[in-house]
Amino acid sequence: MTEARGSAGPAGELAGPLDRERSGAVRLQFWVLLIGTLLMAAKVIAWWITGSNTILGDALESIVNIVAGGFALYSLILAAKPRDREHPYGHGKVEFISAGLEGGLVIMAGLLICWRSIHALYDAHHPKELGIGILITAITGAINLAMGLLLKKRGRSVHSMTMEASGVHLLSDAWSTAAMIVGLSLIAITHATWLDPVFALLFAAYIIFSGAQVLRRAVAGIMDEADLKLAARVIAILEEHRRPQWVDVHNFRMIQYGSILHIDCHVTLPWYHSLEQAHEEIATMERLVNASCDRDVELFIHMDPCIPTSCAICSLAGCPHRRAPQVRSIPWDLDSVLGNAKHGSPGSTV
User: How far apart are CA 247 and CA 294, in angstroms?
Assistant: First the structure.
């Protein structure tokens, strides 16, 4: 098994200060939270002036943004801490909890908007001063668009689900605000005030859908659902740089802890390799994956010795202990490496 990269020391001390990228992400989230608070106040003022249920829905979602943004800031600070004795895999899992909370709050806000809008349909509520409301809402929407794009881009660069979820939320807020402005403008032109709660209901349905998507991703992360697309990419890296000594790879598993990937797998090596030779081959695989990926990857590799039936799939030339010629080559992909049996062994189906 290879030595873990970036782990805590033998006494469990912290491995080091927050890295620059994660510290920058925390600062960015702080400013987004601060600006979001000001935008929420502006939307509440716009609702107070107009009495529009559509604008109220936008304001309620902004309250959700503040609550979720506060927890997101905390989770980013916690996730950026290095691993310690009590958290040997780091603190990155908190990001899934943060994203799940945000998704749940978004859904709750959407349901509240639905209730308010249905009530307004029966009460024949009439919004007023829509011009001012449209102007304020347009400004807040433009700012949310800029912040959402920035958060989503930064979240992807540092592999932070919390920042990505916040970015997606703000972008959905911005696009729904644009649609809301169209609806409010139509109401102002036609004076069909019954359209206000109708547009609010459509807005609520959209944010409930967005919240459900974020919640789905968070639950998948908490449940350690495999990211097969990312796993296929890592496997392709190993296949591209495959060496004859790497007879086989199987039992491949991958878990995400915040921005760090943790990979377990079994690698079959020639049985007569010394411990030093086998360790160097495994270390080469580890260096290869980390050099080719855009994030930290921690590999724990179990070394298996080859068995006589492995000769049929082994391409190592000049092997002094070969029992049979190579008859086939098994490409490494999702279908071939996820299984738990050595390829070519009696229990293998490949």
Answer: 27
